[in-house]
Amino acid sequence: MTNPHEAAFIQSIKDPAGFWAEAAQEIEWVRPWDTVLDDSRPPFYRWFAGGRLNTCYNALDRHVAAGRGDQPALIYDSPVTDTVKTYTYRQLRDEVALFAGVLQSRGVVKGDRVIVYMPMIPEAAIAMLACARIGAVHSVVFGGFAAKELATRIDDAKPKVIVSASCGIEVQRVIPYKPLLDGAIEMAAAKPECCIVLQRSMQPCDLSAGRDFDWNEVMARARPVDCVPVAATDPLYILYTSGTTGQPKGVVRDNGGHAVALHWSMKAVYNLDAGEVFWAASDVGWVVGHSYIVYGPLLKGCTTILFEGKPVGTPDAGVFWRVIAQHKVCTMFTAPTAFRAIKREDPEGVLIRQYDLSHFRALFLAGERLDPDTLKWARQKLQVPVIDHWWQTETGWAICANCLGLHHYPVKEGSPTKAVPGWHLQVLDPIAKTPVPAGEIGALVVQLPLPPGSLPTLWNNDQRYIDAYLEEFPGYYKTADAGFIDDEGYVFVMSRTDDIINVAGHRLSTGAMEEVLSDHPSVAECAVLGVDDPLKGQVPVGFLVLKAGVRQSEEQIVAEVIQMVRERIGPVAAFKVATVVKRLPKTRSGKILRGTIQKIADNQAYNVPPTIDDPMILEEIETALKTIGLAGARSGRK
Ligand code: COA
Ligand code: AMP
Questions:
Q1: Which of 366, 471, 490, 523 has its CA 20 to 30 A from that of 78?
Q2: pTM, entire model
Q3: What residues does the AMP-dependent synthetase/ligase domain cover (predicted)?
Q4: Which residues line ligand 2 (CB under 6 A)?
Q5: Pocket lining: 288 vs ligand 1, CB cutoff 6 Å
Q6: Which ligand gives the minimal distance to the CA of 455?
């Protein structure tokens, strides 16, 4: 007997068109599709070709029409401003329709891009949904990125309008957004026609005459506009994510496949029904925020929580439990790092006991590997299933999960359980490109076509899409994660195969940081590695080889490169440690031995690679790491 997960999985692989056509019945279409899966132009696949719909209509208007108008759609809970504000579906639809009117009055039409550079405030979700309403393509940029990163995205997306706010609020400080916005526009070659800026009372900003408009003023004059039908295959948004260079990848999401997949995932993966409360404690700047703060819960008719705060320090490590209790959250989603932060402050979970969490059903974690300690702690303290699931910006929703709405499997520590229906996941030998036996590590790849909701391409860059994801394993999408599948079908995700690191659940490119470090006039050569960190999972550490005859002190150079990364990439890079070394260990062919340096830094035993040009360098590296508090007594050669 197959269980419902197995049955759904098998059907989704044998008959993807039939499987997803059935799921698509749950979405309201202006015009039905001609072809469920258009595979006429491989490797480019399109879902629901010929179909027309509007994502905003499906997320808001449809629920109002169905009698959910007075149900809370979005609860903004902001401990940093001491605010809780609820928008019903009707109120949210009306605000979105008005802001869509604002955008239209500024000349934004279907297909135009709008960048949203905002903190975690309801206006960010309103701006996203307003774009969807008129068929404009939003691109949200995370607030922790610096002006240069924003400029790169402006130049790639070429937005007609940028929507921003005067400031964001971090635990210890107010972050003025306007100087970053102005700096980015100045740097960018593609200038927006205007900016709409929400003035926040904690730190209002000056508006540039002629270019900037006050959110409240334009909203007061706006007329609501209706939903514009778009093709299922039209882009809904672009979300930039770290690639292997300083040039981020513009992941494209379509309208039709995205609405179908996310709606389906809310029940199948998270076991949520319309009317229930779902909370993803992330940021709208990340894919988790797009999929599970904004679109997924609203498409399903749930209540979503938009939380402007941190797991600790706003005001304490009990804030998650307060939010769950106060808003009757059924299911929560966050990154393991948030739980590590809470566990560090409240190891006994004393604060948990102060709240009534009786309606809380499950905790989902993703964004980085879930370490067994955090899993056990969360499970023991919360007494609910703790579900690890694995996905990426590119995939838009979970590749692997314990799908609570289909079948609850026993949890195996270290595993996000099994492939979700739709994802034909395999493990291939990176050299032979053939499947490896169960239990053996290889490249985690997904057989094409990818299910709906995953990226159809990169923005304006079909070739980079092919090169980055499809080239290496013909017929498959390369996740760039390595791992294995055991003989019961449980998947284990071990590490990235590229230079992406995960810092506090945030995806960052060490290659991009190396580009910044190399720009320092005293640096001849450099390497950035992600080393283990008990709170953030990984943190970047820089190794600098200086040019001959440099007069500056090493301390000064280190301080300068740290500042450069903060200024060019942003505080989110959490680049705070660098050290000067005489040489970097390399193979005879000149490749830096990153794996070996990493093992030394992570206190793991390492082999001296036979290809190394000079084994003495490893001792120098170990000494350098010890001086900055990394590489302890446990490290050493095998
Ligand atoms: N705007 C401006 N700055 C920001 C920012 C934003 N939106 N978000 C983060 N930053 C800054 C932080 O203030 C910090 O600055 P600092 O170097 O001056 O201290 C820096 O970027 C690094 O941020 P972060 O890595 O988040 O560290 P933190 O110490 O502020 O918080 C955690 C650590 C674990 C509490 C926090 O990262 C967290 O809650 N993460 C889990 C949830 C999550 O967002 N996951 C994402 C994917 S699900
Ligand atoms: P992002 O695109 O920011 O969502 O980051 C995606 C990457 O984070 C993946 O490719 C993995 O390397 C890592 N990741 C996400 N979820 C998990 C998980 N549950 N277990 C292990 N790694 C994960």
A1: 366
A2: 0.94
A3: 63-447
A4: 241, 287, 366-370, 388-393, 416, 479, 481, 493, 496, 502, 507
A5: yes
A6: 2
